[in-house]
């Protein structure tokens, strides 16, 4: 996930270039991603610093309209893999050694 500084920099740049004092210079922005995957990188950061670096912590986030996709197009022909991803994303997959999960042998290359 992008750091909120990048998100806010794009906003300021669009406002400056377009001369319009509206979020992103009044332009519609389309973002894509999965918040269940990766948090922003903050080298040496604490948990709080990493969370604060997320775009959802930006004042701009109140202007975002979330749309949730309902079908995983990459895994549409593989129900086993698709279900596995959902269990991981929903924190329903059993863990081993703390926060580690076991990847089934059928999903690895020997």
TrEMBL record:
Catalytically driven reaction(s): ATP + H2O = ADP + phosphate + H(+)
Keywords: ATP-binding, DNA damage, DNA recombination, DNA repair, Helicase, Hydrolase, Nucleotide-binding
Necessary cofactors: Mg(2+)
EC numbers: 5.6.2.3
Pfam family name, one: PIF1
SUPFAM superfamilies on file: P-loop containing nucleoside triphosphate hydrolases
Record-level GO BP terms: DNA recombination; DNA repair; telomere maintenance
Residue runs in coiled coils: none
Domain DNA helicase Pif1-like DEAD-box helicase residues, every copy: 1-92
Top-rank EC class of the record's enzyme: isomerase
Record-linked InterPro entries: DNA_helicase_pif1-like_DEAD, P-loop_NTPase
Any GO molecular function: ATP binding
Assigned protein family: Belongs to the helicase family.
UniProt name for this protein: ATP-dependent DNA helicase
Organism in which the protein naturally occurs: Sesamum angustifolium
């Amino acid at each position: 996930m992008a750091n909120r500084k990048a998100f806010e920099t794009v906003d300021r740049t669009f406002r400056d270039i377009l001369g319009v004092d509206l979020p992103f210079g009044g332009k519609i922005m389309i973002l894509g991603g999965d918040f269940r995957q990766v948090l922003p990188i903050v080298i040496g950061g604490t948990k709080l610093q990493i969370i604060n670096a997320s775009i959802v912590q930006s004042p701009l986030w109140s202007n975002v309209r979330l749309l949730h996709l309902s079908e995983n197009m990459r895994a549409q022909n593989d129900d086993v893999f698709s279900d596995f991803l959902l269990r991981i994303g929903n924190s329903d997959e059993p863990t081993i050694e703390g926060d580690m999960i076991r990847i089934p042998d059928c999903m690895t290359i020997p």
